[in-house]
TrEMBL record:
Keywords recorded for this protein, A-Z: Cell outer membrane, Membrane, Receptor, Signal, TonB box, Transmembrane, Transmembrane beta strand, Transport
Domain TonB-dependent receptor plug: 58-167
Record has DNA damage as a keyword: no
Name of the protein in question: TonB-dependent receptor
UniProt xrefs under Gene3D superfamilies: TonB-dependent receptor, beta-barrel domain, TonB-dependent receptor, plug domain
InterPro entries: Beta-barrel_TonB (IPR000531), Beta-barrel_TonB_sf (IPR036942), Plug_dom (IPR012910), Plug_dom_sf (IPR037066), TAT_signal (IPR006311), TonB-dep_rcpt-like (IPR039426), TonB_rcpt_CS (IPR010917)
């Protein structure tokens, strides 16, 4: 079983290369004299496979966060800690509800999770689940993290595909000896005193409860680590187990999220005299129902007084779905595993890793029901309708047995008190077995095989069947009893008529009939066989005459197989789910293979000479052969120059590759929501007839097209593409490291980066599709708009086409700055008070350019956010921590997190960003700069115990409020939730934590 899993050809390839390399290394060792050997502590720096002296610096920009920082932040989930770093933008987090994948992912440089490679001790993490195949850092046990290295210079030549934006490498605690037990409790305290939000709530057209002060969001986290050395100290086993429980928090608990905000926008020309107004928008999929024959007009709703009659729909009858949604998901997680190794001989150190995670999370959103966009039929002699209602719908045909009303029905099932639950479960495994050793003469090797699997199960509860809803609307009077036509005909004898014609009259039997549960299940697997040999040529005397170190190399090969298997229940396959974005979906099955050969070279040129303390060149190359995407070459080169010990300059170039992943290749066409809103819909479209005509709207349809009622946008049709080719990226870096001898305990780095990704794999943003088609009539964009028979983009046959393609480019440039400083207070004349440590990390984004299609419009998202640019990308972010290291076994620390201000992309005059709406949003136009302050402390007690405590977001600062939409533009996008961006800004309020570690 093992050999087919990892692949005989791959193992043979790796073994063949290694045998030759090992033989050469052994010959070199035999020729080396004993007098020539020296002992040197060597380490492996993230971003290279060549071992180097511990005092050398990385040739690429590198940020390291240690376990102490995790403790001071009070974070036991690593994504929170990483998302606080200036160079990382939050992606999937525990704050997602609608659209949650149940995973936690890392988005370096805001270039997307697909372009960030995540490693564990230099080896790949498991793929994410088969719907979202990006490394899930929930898998990482925080208790075992020694440090995290973030390399931002590109590293595909070293690690292979995906390291376009960079690499995040989790370094785990190994060779642990003893027992360590840890427990932490945290909770949020929030004062609901947001005057702006409460002003909106009080003016709401429908009743909204203003929440009071809260103490909630409880998280309990515990871990157990045990390690033991072998009696001869040649081996070690380190085992761990962790448990985490997270309490759910709903949007109803915060005044800024208690309703879904929207903005009425003014024309830009009138901005000076007309202010925008924010209001509680709600959903026209109303708890009072809404029936319309087409997209025009307001339609009819049930009379709020409970009588069997219709009234004209108005905004007071909209449904406030916000309070149901989670802003912190319920989550329960177990992890466990062990790292072990035993040195049989210096040349044969056998090691193995086993890691496991079981994660169960629930996302709650508002109840399902009838959703506008699907056309339903109601027979005009339906006995559940009153005569008044029948007349309203059918006119002169009221009561006719042969007449039928057809139109859109929107009706939330709120009286059943059954919100929708997205129940997500992930079970992850990762096995590694390998051997490494010292071959003598400065040469070593490492060969390993790795298998990982992610088993995914998703159950979507309390949705309803479109087919059953339709059956339940067609009812006849049979002996005084309302009976489904399908029961009479025998086509569906289980049908129960549904009474949507009077409030609160839907029977339990009808609910039981229409409610349904859907399923998704599947897995991703990854198999790797890899081998590397590294060393230097000191034995041959191969070195520069001006350098003290010899030329060093690393050579290796790797085989990798990624596979996906995703299946759906029949109601998902057929698109029968009313509350899940009606549309058909097909299973996804497939696998990719790649064979790599790679090498690195370190060439010291000059050392310890006047004005040249160190001068060296690093280079790397990788040849890859993908079974579907073809062959690719990646390479790098860098120069390191230190004129004196105090300063070192570094600069480099990386040519990186990202091959299409298993979702981008094998996902079949899937309908969903999330596209731009439609400026050609409604009774008064914001776009002209001429503009809308370019998008496929006829003169008869203009003014009669159904709006996309979901704030998440119009329908999309997405899918993979087996013809995709790899992305390529060119990264340039230049910077310096400053460690002045005249200022001990100080170090600083400044690095410039410029990353340009071409042949971009992705989709054209739907806002870009709409704006370009409206404004230019470009056939490429207009062909991506597929209007339904009635012109709608909110129906099963109306959607934006968002299939993956190789298209334009993305380019980002900026500067990273970091620094550390330690000052003993005694040196300042302050005795017996310990010292102060300062740590600083900052990132400036110069530009973040995006061109969806070559030779077409491009735009810059630096300093912007919104429907096209997504989450905020401020020009500047930083984090500053000052820690007082007292002489009393205690540390006190304050942390300052700064997030620069940003502006709404839709306000731009650039037609690529304003979605063609011509609307200027003053209320949502800017997010001011944000300052968060955190306090933390640690106390060592009785040698074996450490108490830690702290409060994050000390001043209980509310996140910025952003409207879910402003007229026809969806502001928040994919990662928005609860009127804000929860992965970037603190949402729960002031958060306290208390933890204790027992270490024996």
């Amino acid at each position: 079983m093992g050999m087919p899993k990892f692949g005989r050809r791959a193992l043979l390839l790796s073994s063949t290369m290694l045998v030759g390399a090992l033989a050469a290394a052994a010959d070199a060792a035999a020729q080396q004299s004993a007098s020539a050997s020296t002992d040197m502590q060597e380490i492996v720096v993230t971003g290279s496979r060549i071992k180097q002296a511990a005092n050398l610096t990385s040739d690429s920009p590198l940020t390291t966060v240690d376990s102490i920082e995790m403790k001071l932040q009070g974070t036991t989930n690593v994504e929170t800690m990483l998302n606080n770093l200036p160079g990382i933008t939050a992606a999937q987090t525990n704050a997602q509800s609608n659209g949650a994948t149940g995973t936690a992912t890392i988005n370096l440089r805001n270039l997307g999770e697909a372009r960030t490679l995540v490693l564990i001790d230099g080896r790949r993490m498991p793929l994410g689940d088969p719907t979202y195949p990006y490394a899930d850092v929930n898998f990482i046990p925080g208790a075992l993290v020694e440090s995290v290295d973030v390399v931002t210079g590109g590293a595909s030549a070293v690690y292979g595909s995906d390291a376009v934006a960079g690499v995040v490498n989790f370094k785990m605690k190994r060779d642990f000896e003893g027992v360590k037990v840890d427990y932490q409790f945290s909770a949020a305290q929030h004062s609901n005193e947001n005057g702006d939000a409460q002003g909106v709530l009080k003016k709401s057209a429908y009743p909204v409860t203003i929440p009071g002060d809260r103490f909630d969001g409880f998280v309990r986290d515990s871990s157990f680590v045990m390690g033991v050395n072998s009696p001869n100290n040649k081996g070690n086993v380190t085992a761990y187990a962790t448990y985490r429980w997270t309490e759910p928090v709903t949007q109803a608990t915060r005044d800024w999220s208690a309703c879904t905000m929207a903005t009425t926008s003014s024309n830009e020309d009138a901005l000076a005299t007309q202010d925008n107004q924010r209001y509680c928008s709600g959903s026209s999929n109303s708890a009072y129902a809404r029936l319309r024959t087409n997209g025009s007009g307001t339609g009819y709703s049930l009379n709020p007084d409970g009588s069997a009659s219709f009234v004209k729909y108005n905004s007071a009858l909209a449904f406030n779905y916000g309070p149901y949604n989670y802003i912190q998901r319920q989550d329960e997680r177990y992890t466990g595993g062990a790292f072990a190794h035993y040195e049989i001989s210096p040349a044969f150190d056998v090691y193995t890793d086993f890691m496991f995670m079981s994660d169960h999370t629930k996302a709650q959103i508002a109840p399902s029901g009838f959703f506008s966009g699907t056309t339903y039929s109601i027979n005009c002699d339906n006995p559940l309708m009153s005569a008044s209602e029948a007349t309203t719908l059918c006119g002169a045909n009221a009561g006719s047995a042969s007449a039928t009303w057809k139109g859109y029905v929107a009706y939330r099932f709120t009286d059943n008190n059954a919100p929708r639950y997205d129940d997500l479960r992930h079970t992850d495994y990762r096995y590694v077995i390998g051997t490494r050793g010292d071959l003598g003469g400065g040469w070593s090797y490492d060969v390993y095989a790795q298998h990982s699997a992610v088993i995914y199960n998703e159950t979507y509860q309390n949705d309803v069947s479109i087919a059953k809803l339709q059956n339940a609307l067609l009812a006849k009077n049979v002996n005084g009893v309302a009976t489904c036509e399908s029961v009479i005909s025998g086509t569906d004898t289980a049908c129960v008529p549904i009474n949507i014609f009077q409030l609160g009259k839907i029977s339990s039997a009808a609910y039981n009939y229409v409610y349904t549960t859907s399923f998704k299940e599947g897995s991703t697997t990854q198999d790797i066989v890899s081998g590397t040999v590294s060393g230097d040529f000191g034995a041959w005397g191969v070195k520069s005459p001006f350098a003290k170190d010899a030329v060093a190399v690393a050579l290796g090969s790797e085989w990798r197989r990624d596979a996906i298997d995703l299946k759906y229940s029949e109601n998902v396959l057929s698109g029968d789910l009313s509350g899940s974005g009606a549309g058909t979906t097909q299973p996804a099955v497939g696998a990719t293979e790649v064979k790599d050969i790679f090498g690195e070279l370190r060439l010291p040129l000059v050392s310890d000479q006047p004005f040249i303390k160190d001068l060296s060149i690093d280079a790397g190359y990788r040849w890859s052969d993908y079974n579907l995407a073809g062959k690719a070459n990646t390479y790098k080169a860098s120069l390191n120059y230190a004129p004196i010990s105090d300063v070192a300059f570094r600069g480099g170039y990386n040519h990186a590759v990202r091959a299409p992943n298993i979702i981008e290749l094998f996902q079949t066409s899937t309908s969903g929501i999330g596209g731009a809103l439609d400026p050609c819909s409604g009774s008064s479209p914001s776009a002209s007839l001429a503009q809308c005509g370019r998008t496929g709207v006829t003169a008869a349809q203009y003014g009669n097209i159904s709006e996309c009622t979901s704030v998440d946008g119009c329908n999309t049709l997405s899918g993979g593409n087996k013809a995709l080719k790899p992305e390529t990226a060119d990264t340039y870096t230049a910077g310096f490291v400053f460690t002045p001898t005249f200022m001990p305990n100080f170090a600083a780095t400044v690095d410039y980066y410029n990353i340009k990704i071409q042949d971009l794999i992705g989709t054209v943003p739907t806002s870009q599709i709409m704006s370009q088609c409206l404004n230019t009539g470009n056939s490429y964009y207009c062909d991506l708009i597929h209007r339904g028979a009635a012109g709608s983009l909110n129906s099963s046959d109306g959607y934006f086409i968002t299939t993956d393609i190789n298209a334009g480019y993305r380019q980002q440039a900026g500067i990273d700055i970091s620094g550390t400083y330690r000052q003993d207070l005694e040196d300042l004349g302050i005795k017996d008070l310990g010292g102060v440590t300062l740590k600083f990390i900052g990132s400036w984004t110069q530009f973040n350019r995006y061109q969806p299609l070559l030779h077409e419009a491009k735009y810059d998202c630096a300093g912007l956010y919104g429907s096209t640019c997504g989450q905020p990308t401020p020009h500047w972010r930083h984090q500053v921590r000052v820690t007082w290291n007292t002489p009393w076994n205690a540390d006190l620390s304050v942390n300052w997190r700064y997030i620069g201000g940003t502006s709404l992309d839709n306000n731009s005059t650039d037609p690529s960003l304003n979605a063609g709406s011509g609307i200027y949003n003053n209320i949502d136009g800017k997010i001011a700069a944000y300052n968060y302050f955190d306090l933390a402390g640690t106390i060592n007690l009785m040698d074996h115990y450490t108490l830690r405590f702290g409060v994050n977001n000390l001043f209980d600062k509310d996140p910025p409020i952003q409207s879910a939409n402003d007229d026809y533009v969806s502001v928040l996008g994919t990662y928005g939730n609860g009127n804000t961006y929860p992965g970037i800004y603190d949402t729960l309020g002031r958060t306290f934590f208390l933890g204790i570690t027992a270490d024996f």
